[in-house]
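3.2 Worked example (two chains)
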Amino acid sequence: MSENRLRKLLEQNRRLHEQLELPRIATSEASRSLITYVTQTRDYLVPSVWGTPPEDRWTPKRSGLACCNIL
C-alpha cells in the first residue's frame, strides 16, 4: 500500500515540476499583447466597428434572392 502511495506522490511531484518549468509571461505583457491584437485585427463580425468585409473573389456570386435548402 505504501509503495503505491509513494509512486503516486512521485508522479504528482514530477507533473508539478513540469508545470513549474513552463514559460510564463507577466500579466501586463499578456494584456498589452491582447490589446494590440484586438485593435489591429479586423473582426467583420462587429460591422459597427470594422465595416462590411471586402468582396471575396473565391466565393460564388449570388443572385439578388437568397435561397435556403431544408432537408
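3.2.1 Second chain
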Amino acid sequence: MKSLISQDKPVERLIIFILGLLIMSLGIVLVITANLGSAPWDILNIGLHIQFGLTIGS
C-alpha cells in the first residue's frame, strides 16, 4: 500500500505537519473562547496565560 506522503520529501512532510498543528491550535482556541470547556492538556495553556500573560496559540 502506497503512503499518502512520500518519505523522501521532508519539506513537504514538514509543511503538512505545521499545517496540522495550526489547525489543531485553531480548534483548541475556538473551544476555549466559546466557553465549551477544555481538555486537561489545555489547562496548562490557560494557567500560563493567567500566571504570565502568555497568549494561547502564540
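3.3 Remarks
The helical segments are 10-33, 40-52.
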